[in-house]
Amino acid sequence: MLDMTLVRDPAGRPRRPRRFCCAVLASLIAAGLLASDADAAARKRDHPRPRIRHGFHYGPGNQPPYADIVVDVNSGRVLHEANPDSPRHPASLTKIMTLYLLFEQMEAGRFRLDSELPVSAHAAVQPPTKLRLKPGQTLKVEEAIKAVVTRSANDAAVVVAEAVAGSEENFAGMMTGKAHALGMDGTVYVNASGLPADAQLTTARDQALLGRAIQSRFPDYYRYFATPTFEFRGMTISNHNTLLKTVDGVDGIKTGFTEASGYNLVASLRRNGRHVVGVVLGGTSNGARDARMRELIETGIVAASSERTAPEIVEATGSAAIADGDGADAPALPTPAGAPPPASPAAPAFGFSGTGVP
Fold it and tell me: What is the pLDDT of residues 197-234, one digit of tens each?
């Protein structure tokens, strides 16, 4: 307890003890700090910091859960699998479907490689990785394809989405419809890039199916997935898929990463008439993911068949419409002269080992 006895100074005036004054000062400071902390806590509750992290669950050690699969393309047989039907975030593997829909439009003659696609404000503000496009600029179709394949450019993916469907939202509806038409029943898309979104989900089995389908349906355009580098407005952009350089016979296709997905990869390997597609989801690093994929496909190719017996992947009809049902918001573009002729769905997709351009 404080000593409250009054003392007097040499002039006889009363004064409080020094200990009392110090205690009062300390109490005031503490009260101020507590009030400041309370105010800060209230501000944090009222204005929480935005969270980029997403995901519905994590594995041991707070790591994204793991899944993989290896499929023999010639026979359709599953050579290896681990959690192949468990939901996972696709990250930039999403862009495989983005390009599938673009290739479909090109096959139909709506776009050609030199068609100019407008860059909107929405596309320009996408987070990295990106080309740093500006609103009002244009991007050629071939530039968009290479930017998506190599840098995994999010702005380029949105440029494609808006050119095809009028808006990214409509395009995401098309993507999900196409996925279900192909039999990818565990896949839902909500954006064109694979940027974090809790509802954007897929499975290893679905990604293997898409990796096979895009090669079978668009054998000429698929070759872009082997593009090693891309020259764009003074920049040299390298492909993120290092297996193109380190594993003989790998011809694509796509990497991906977000915090919730982990390190993802779909890879295609052809050797001596054999062909496998592998998927790794939830790798702990680029190196660990690539090493695991190398192990899976090198083992798988030995067990794969050299004889084609699997049926072609056929889309169900009536399931791949734009979200609003008719695509009325898509911009009307003239059919370009000299557009590439439609490719046969049964065209052979094997034997390419060039530089990654048609």
Answer: 999 999 999 999 999 999 999 999 999 999 999 999 99
Q: What is the pLDDT of residues 113-158, one digit of tens each?
A: 999 999 999 999 999 999 999 999 999 999 999 999 999 999 999 9
Considering the four listed CATH numbers 3.40.390.10, 3.40.710.10, 3.10.20.580, 3.40.50.620, the one that applies to the domain covering 64-303 is 3.40.710.10
- The domain locations on the chain are 64-303
Q: For this structure, is 193 an active site residue?
A: no
- Active-site pick, 115, 152, 167, 268: 152
- What predicted TM-score, i.e. pTM, was given to this entire model? 0.75
Structure tokens at 114: 């030199």
Query: Is 95 assigned a catalytic role?
Result: yes
Active-site residue (options: 95, 130, 178, 254): 95
Reading the block at residue 273, the tokens are 């008439």
Angle at 163 between CA 98 and CA 50, to 5 degrees: 65
45-54 long-range Cβ contacts below 8 angstroms, 24+ apart: 52/196, 52/259, 53/196, 53/259, 53/260, 54/89, 54/196, 54/197, 54/198, 54/258, 54/259, 54/260
What is the tally of helices (H) and strands (E) in the chain?
Answer: 10, 11
For 25, which DSSP code?
H
